[in-house]
Amino acid sequence: MGIYQTTAADRTAIAISGTDRVDFLQNLITQNIERQEPCIMAALLTPQGKLAYDFLIFRRPDCFVLDCDSRIAEALIKRLQMYKLRAAVEITPLTETPLIIWSDDAEPLPSHGGKHEGLHPDARHKALGLRGWFATPPSLSLQIASPDMWTAHRIGLGIPQGAEEMPNGAIFPLEFGFEQMNAIDFNKGCFIGQEVSSRVHRKGQLRKSLWVAEFEGAMPAQIKGVPTPITTDITGDSRQCGQIITIHKNCGLVLVRNDSLDKPLKAGQSTLHNLSGLFDFL
Fold first, then answer.
1. pLDDT, tens digit, for every residue of 80-91?
2. Using CB atoms within 10 A of its CB, is residue 121 exposed (0-12), middle (13-18) or buried (19+)?
3. What's the mean pLDDT in 102-112?
4. CATH second-level architecture of 3-165?
5. Residue 124, CA atoms < 13 Å, CB-side half-sphere
6. Neighbouring residues of 28: CB distance < 8 A, sequence distance ≥ 6
7. In this structure, are residues 181 and 159 in contact, taking their beta carbons and an 8 Å threshold?
């Protein structure tokens, strides 16, 4: 228990600079880039309203820094270059290092952000702590946490992340809690995929939702203790009603039909218990 620091080798920083950078991003992404917060969560959708890329955006005086899954960084740069056209924008990968500070027992963190410029609250969830990108990360004399500890903390809060948990073009962001993670602004104006997302938002009816679940009993060997793509079925009353998104030890993220939440849920020989939604942690 305490305050920890860790890095994230699976993340890449991309700088968006140039005089047209605000208008360029504003017309593409789900969040309002004109907000003055130092860190926001956002996404780029497909025209069909499915998730293409998710990322955090850090505001700097001369650029925006996109914090994304390293596995999709090259593809994201190519997609942004495709939309660039004649805009006065430069899209450049950075060689900086991410630093994350977080607490697992509600200890206060603001003093670290005040001492070290560039560390800002993670926009997705207050319990994710502070994060930033640095050419040379500051020395904070905190407990060093392994990436495994950070992953367990994130999953326990119900926060999905990256291409392995949310494959390109395969999921609808509202089902994965993007509204609760402050990743979509439905009042900002047009963005790619807005029509589908806004229609679902207005109706207020989601067929599926993302949940944190505890697993009890023997788990399939292919998912035991390792992150898993959307392939392992969840059943309720012997009927398929959801998928495992990722598992860490006996806790995982699951996507389940909302009309099956009152049924006993199983994944192989494992039983799901204590389902909780992202909104339970906010």
1. 999 999 999 999
2. middle
3. 65
4. 2-Layer Sandwich (3.30)
5. 23
6. 44, 80, 83, 191, 192
7. yes
Q: In the beta sheet, which residues pair with residue 265?
A: 236
Q: Which residues does 149 contact at the CB level (< 8 Å), separation at least 6?
A: 4, 6
Cβ burial of 241 (10 Å; 0-12, 13-18, 19+) is buried
Output the CATH code of domain 207-282: 2.40.30
pLDDT tens digits along 140-155: 888 999 988 999 999 9
Closest CA to 174 of 219, 204, 152: 204
Evaluate if residue 231 carries a pLDDT over 90: no
Where does CATH 2.40.30 sit in the chain? 207-282
Mean pLDDT across 38-65: 96
- Residue 139 has, within 13 A of its CA and on its CB side, a CA count of 1
In which order are the strands placed within the sheet that holds 39-45? Answer: 39-45, 51-60, 63-69, 11-17, 90-93
Pull the structure tokens for residue 225. Answer: 């203790």
Q: How far apart are the first and last CA of the chain?
A: 20
CA separation for the pair 162, 227 (Å, rounded)? 11
Boundaries of CATH 3.30.1360.120 in the chain? 3-165
Does the pTM of the predicted model rise above 0.85? yes
